[in-house]
Amino acid sequence: MAIERNKELVHRMLGAFNSGDETVVDAVMHDQLVDHTPFPGTGADRNGLKTQIRAVKRAFPNAKFSIDRIISEGDTVAFRWRMEGTHRGPLLGHNATEKAFVHFGNDMVTIKDGRIAEHFSADNIGELLTSLGISPPTPR
Q1: What is the pTM of this model?
Q2: From residue 88, how far is each of 13, 19, 59, 60 by CA, in Å?
């Protein structure tokens, strides 16, 4: 069933953040991936996503991502994720704080030709930084 296969793509992609295995990106993300909300300092394509995986693993080597809820309809999958870990490496120009955290986000992806082709994310990076004792950047 396509709906279950689409959900499995999301589980595999999130698993790459747990393992640090960037090869998953090439397996589950479409060649023409467009990430509408890339992590700061990364690109909106597959290489940008690989850079994000490296940045997350460097900043939070013990990070554990999980999916709290996942809904799939047609070629769209929406999910709420949770990340827990400890800040042990550089993050967005800030040194490690050694603080533990829990962070949440909501993402939506579009599937095309059996791979993730489009990605939108809604998480509050400012809130994550504040929980780590880092002042978020001032809005312009």
Answers
A1: 0.92
A2: 23, 16, 6, 6
